[in-house]
Amino acid sequence: MNRSMIPLPDEDHECTECGFSYGALDAEGAAEIIGGVPGRARSAALRAADPRRRPEPQTWSVLEYVCHLRDVYVSSTIRLHRVRTEADPALEPMLNDLRTRRFRHNELDLLPVLTEIRLDVDGFLDEVARVRTDGWVRTASRLPGERRTALWFVRHAAHEGVHHVGDIERVAAATS
C-alpha cells in the first residue's frame, strides 16, 4: 500500500485506531502533547529487542517508525512556516514509504534518531509559538480539495506523535 498519498484527515477528525480527536484540542493543548512525544517515543523504542526487525514485510520496524516521527516534525515545521508566511501554499506530500526506502531508515542508529526527534519537536514548537492569534485560520493544501488550517497542522502533528508512539509500542512488543 502506498501510504504516501492517503488523503489528509478532516479538520475535526477522530481517529478510530488511537482515539485522538482533533476537535478536542486547541493549539496550546496540541503543543503540550507534542512536547511529550520525544520522551514517549524514546521509552517505547528502547523496549524493542531489535529495532530494525519488521513484524511483517508491510509493517515498518520500530526504527522506521522513529525515523518517520522525526520526519513528521521536520515536515510539519516547514509546512506550518509556509502556512504562516505564504498565502494558501500548495504543499508537497511527505512520500513516507519512499523516504523510508531511499534514506535507508532501517540502517540508521536508533539513539541519534531519538535525539533528532527531541530537537525537531523543539523546532516545531518554536514555529507554533510564532503563529499569531489571527494566524490559526490561515490555510494550505496538498491534494485538490484538501485545504487545511494552521490549527489543523498542529493538531495533526500531535495526532501523528500519539498514533506513531502507539505503533512503536505495538511493533516493539511484537518483535521482542
From TrEMBL:
Pfam families: DinB_2. SUPFAM superfamilies: DinB/YfiT-like putative metalloenzymes. InterPro entries: DinB-like, DinB/YfiT-like. Residues 45-168 form the DinB-like domain. This is DinB-like domain-containing protein. It comes from Solicola gregarius.
